[in-house]
TrEMBL record, chain A:
The lineage of its organism: Eukaryota, Fungi, Dikarya, Ascomycota, Taphrinomycotina. Keywords: Iron, Iron-sulfur, Metal-binding, Pyridoxal phosphate, Transferase. PANTHER family: CYSTEINE DESULFURASE, CYSTEINE DESULFURYLASE FAMILY MEMBER. It is an enzyme of class 2 (transferase). This is cysteine desulfurase. Its cofactor is pyridoxal 5'-phosphate. Gene3D superfamilies: Aspartate Aminotransferase, domain 1, Type I PLP-dependent aspartate aminotransferase-like (Major domain).
Automatic annotation (TrEMBL), chain B:
It comes from Schizosaccharomyces cryophilus (strain OY26 / ATCC MYA-4695 / CBS 11777 / NBRC 106824 / NRRL Y48691) (Fission yeast). This is Iron sulfur cluster assembly protein Isd11. GO terms for biological process: iron-sulfur cluster assembly. Transmembrane segments: none annotated. GO terms for cellular component: L-cysteine desulfurase complex; mitochondrion. Belongs to the complex I LYR family. Residues 9-59 form the Complex 1 LYR protein domain.
Length: 498, 101
C-alpha cells in the first residue's frame, strides 16, 4: 500500500462514522489535512449531499479541462478507495497541468520564498509596534525596521536616513511630486516630466496643474528615450522638479539618468526618478547619477505587495510638504505606523536583489535574447523601444495584422499583458506606444512579455510555440493578411467608394 | 569540526532533494540557483570563506525545508509546462512531507 493511499485512509479513520458528518465542508475532499490542500480546487466542484454515488462523482468531474484521465479513476474503485478518496484523486488529476505560466513580471512578481521566510516571525511572534519606545516588543520591531532600511539604502548607495517607507510606489510618487511642488510653490512653479510616465505620475501632475503649476511633458523619440536638448531647452528659472522614470514599465527602455542628473544639478533643479521597475535590476547610484528623489516599489522585486519606499536626499536637503499628517513618523514626512512584516520582507527582497543582480541579469538577458529572436522571426513584427538601452526583462512586440486582444485570448495558457496593468481595463491603446509614434492599429496589437528571476527556458519555448501557432491561426483568418500576402499596400486602399 | 568535501556533497544533495518538493516556479529556480552557486564556490580554498559558505548552505537548507512544507499546504497548482505524469508524483511526495508534521 503506498504512503499516499495509507495517508488517505488514515485521515478517513479520523472522521466519526455517522452519515450526518459527511456533509461538512472538511469531509468532502476526504480528510482534514487534504482538505486544506484541495480547498482551492474544491470550490470548483459542486458538492452534492449524496457524495457516495460514483455516477454523480463522474458528472461533476467531466466539465473540467483534464477530462480524459479524470473519468478513469472514478470508475476504477479498489477495495480501499472510497468515493471521497476517488474524488480527491480526480481533483488532483484535474488540477495538474492547467495553470497558466506567468510572463507578466512588470505587473507584479511572485514573493520569493526567502522573503516570506524572513517575514513570518513578524507575522507571528514579533508583533510589536516599531514606534513603541518603552518595551521589548517595540524595540525588536524597530530593530528589524532599521535593518530593512539599511538594506534598501545600500542597493542605491544612499544613507539609511534618506529612505522613508510608504505603501508603494504610487504613494511615493504622490508624496514626492505633490510635496516638493507645494513646498516650493511660492518661488517655483514649473515641473518637467515625460509623456511616457506611469499613470500615477501623470495624474499627480494633472492635479498640480489644477492647483496652478505649469507642467511640460517632454516628447520621446521613436526609441522611447527623451532628447537631452529638449530637456535643456525646457528648463526655466522657475523649474522646481524634473521627473523621468528609470525603466519604462511598458517598453522597458532605460532613460539616460546620468546625463539628466548632470543637467539638473547644473541648473539647481531637483531630479526625481520613478525607479519602480529599475530598482534592484539595473545598477542605480543616487550619488553618481545625481538623483535627489526616487520612488521604489516592493512587489516588483519579489517582495510583498503594499510596501514601497521614497528616497529623499538630505545633503543637499530636499524639503517636502508631507501628504499624511499625524504623529511625525518617518522624519515627519509620512506619519503612520509602519508594518514590520512588509518592511522586513521589502528589506530582504532588496538585499537579495543586490546580491543576485548580476546573476539574475545574465539569466534574464539570455532568456530575453532567445524570446526576441524567436518572436522577430515571425514576419511583420517589431520590437518597441530602443534595442540597446533597455531592460531585457521587458519585451514589447507589435504583431501587425493581428488584433491584440484576440491574441491574448488565444494565449490563455500564458499570463501576458498588452500595455500596463493599470490601463488594461480600458479599451484605449496604450499612451506610451502612441508617444513613441506608433499608429493605433500597431498599438492595439502589441503584447508585453515579462521575464523574471523565475522564468525558465521551458516556459520561453512554450510561449514561443503558442505565439507562433496563434499568430498563424489569426492571420489565416484575416482578409487583410491575404491582401498583404498578395503584395497590396494597405495604405493605398480606398475603403469608401463615393 | 573541519568541513570537508563530504559535508558539501551532503548539503548539495539535501538541498536538491528538498527543493524537488516545491511547486514549479520555486523548484526550477532553486535547483538552478544551488547548482550555479555550488559551481561558483567549488574552488574556494580560504577556510573562512568555506565556513561562511557552509553556514549559508545550512541556512538555505532550513529555509527550503520550511518553505516546501508551507507551499505544500496552500495553493498546489500545476503549470501547463509541467509534465502531467510527474505532477501527481510531486504532489504525493508533498503529501508525505506534510503528513510527517
Amino acid at each position: 500500500m503506498s504512503r499516499f493511499s495509507r495517508f488517505m485512509t488514515l485521515s478517513q479513520k479520523a472522521l466519526p462514522r455517522t452519515s450526518s458528518c459527511l456533509n461538512r465542508p472538511w469531509t468532502r475532499a476526504g480528510g482534514v489535512a487534504s482538505s486544506r490542500l484541495f480547498s482551492s480546487s474544491c470550490s470548483r466542484f459542486s458538492t452534492s449531499p449524496s457524495s457516495q454515488d460514483p455516477s454523480i462523482l463522474k458528472s461533476s468531474v467531466s466539465p473540467t479541462a483534464a477530462a480524459s484521465t479524470a473519468a478513469a479513476p472514478a470508475t476504477a474503485t479498489t477495495t480501499m478507495e472510497t468515493p471521497t478518496v476517488a474524488k480527491a484523486k480526480a481533483a488532483l488529476e484535474a488540477i495538474s497541468g492547467t495553470h497558466p505560466i506567468y510572463m507578466d513580471f512588470q505587473a507584479t512578481s511572485p514573493l520569493d520564498y526567502r522573503v516570506l521566510d524572513s517575514m513570518l516571525p513578524y507575522l507571528t511572534g514579533v508583533y510589536g509596534n516599531p514606534h513603541s519606545r518603552t518595551h521589548e516588543y517595540g524595540w525588536e520591531a524597530e530593530k528589524a525596521v532599521e535593518k530593512a532600511r539599511e538594506e534598501v539604502a545600500t542597493v542605491i548607495n544612499a544613507d539609511p536616513r534618506e529612505i522613508i517607507f510608504t505603501s508603494g510606489a504610487t504613494e511615493s510618487n504622490n508624496t514626492i511630486l505633490k510635496g516638493v511642488a507645494r513646498f516650493y510653490q511660492n518661488r517655483k512653479k514649473h515641473i518637467i516630466s515625460v509623456q511616457t510616465e506611469h499613470k500615477c505620475v501623470l495624474d499627480s501632475l494633472r492635479t498640480l496643474q489644477e492647483e496652478g503649476f505649469d507642467v511640460t511633458y517632454l516628447p520621446v523619440q521613436t526609441n522611447g528615450l527623451i532628447s537631452l536638448d529638449d530637456l535643456k531647452k525646457a528648463i526655466r528659472p522657475d523649474t522646481v522638479l524634473v521627473s523621468v522614470m528609470a525603466v519604462n514599465n511598458e517598453i522597458g527602455v532605460i532613460q539616460p539618468l546620468e546625463e539628466i542628473g548632470k543637467i539638473c544639478r547644473a541648473n539647481k533643479v531637483f531630479f526625481h526618478t520613478d525607479a519602480a521597475q529599475g530598482f534592484g535590476k539595473i545598477p542605480l547610484d543616487v550619488n553618481r547619477m545625481n538623483i535627489d528623489l526616487m520612488s521604489i516599489s516592493g512587489h516588483k522585486i519579489y517582495g510583498p505587495k503594499g510596501v514601497g519606499a521614497a528616497f529623499i536626499r538630505r545633503r543637499p536637503r530636499v524639503r517636502l510638504a508631507p501628504l499624511l499628517s499625524g504623529g511625525g513618523q518617518e522624519r515627519g514626512l509620512r506619519s503612520g505606523t509602519l508594518a514590520p512584516p512588509l518592511i522586513v520582507g521589502f528589506g530582504t527582497a532588496a538585499r537579495l536583489c543586490r546580491e543576485e543582480m548580476a546573476y539574475d541579469h545574465e539569466h534574464i538577458s539570455r532568456l530575453s535574447k532567445r524570446l526576441i529572436n524567436g518572436l522577430l522571426a515571425i514576419p511583420f513584427t517589431s520590437l518597441n523601444g530602443d534595442p540597446k538601452s533597455r531592460f531585457p526583462g521587458c519585451v514589447n512586440i507589435s504583431f501587425s495584422y493581428v488584433e491584440g486582444e484576440s491574441l491574448l485570448m488565444g494565449l490563455k495558457n500564458i499570463a501576458l499583458s498588452s500595455g500596463s496593468a493599470c490601463t488594461s481595463a480600458s479599451l484605449e491603446p496604450s499612451y506610451v506606444l502612441r508617444a513613441i509614434g506608433q499608429n493605433d492599429e500597431d498599438a492595439h496589437s502589441s503584447i508585453r512579455f515579462g521575464i523574471g528571476r523565475y522564468t525558465t527556458e521551458a516556459e520561453i519555448d512554450y510561449a514561443l510555440d503558442n505565439v507562433h501557432k496563434q499568430i498563424n491561426f489569426l492571420r489565416n483568418l484575416s482578409p487583410l493578411w491575404d491582401l498583404v500576402q498578395e503584395g497590396v499596400d494597405l495604405s493605398t486602399i480606398e475603403w469608401s467608394s463615393h | 569540526m573541519a568541513s570537508n568535501r563530504q559535508t558539501f556533497v551532503h548539503l548539495y544533495r539535501d538541498l536538491m532533494r528538498t527543493a524537488k518538493l516545491f511547486p514549479y516556479t520555486y523548484r526550477e529556480y532553486t535547483l538552478r540557483r544551488t547548482r550555479d552557486r555550488f559551481k561558483e564556490l567549488k574552488n574556494v580554498t580560504d577556510p573562512s570563506k568555506i565556513h561562511e559558505f557552509e553556514q549559508e548552505a545550512r541556512y538555505m537548507l532550513g529555509v527550503v525545508q520550511r518553505q516546501t512544507t508551507l507551499n505544500g499546504m496552500y495553493n498546489r497548482r500545476n503549470l501547463v509546462v509541467e509534465n502531467a505524469d510527474n505532477a501527481e508524483v510531486n504532489v504525493k511526495k508533498s503529501f508525505e512531507n506534510a503528513s510527517q508534521l
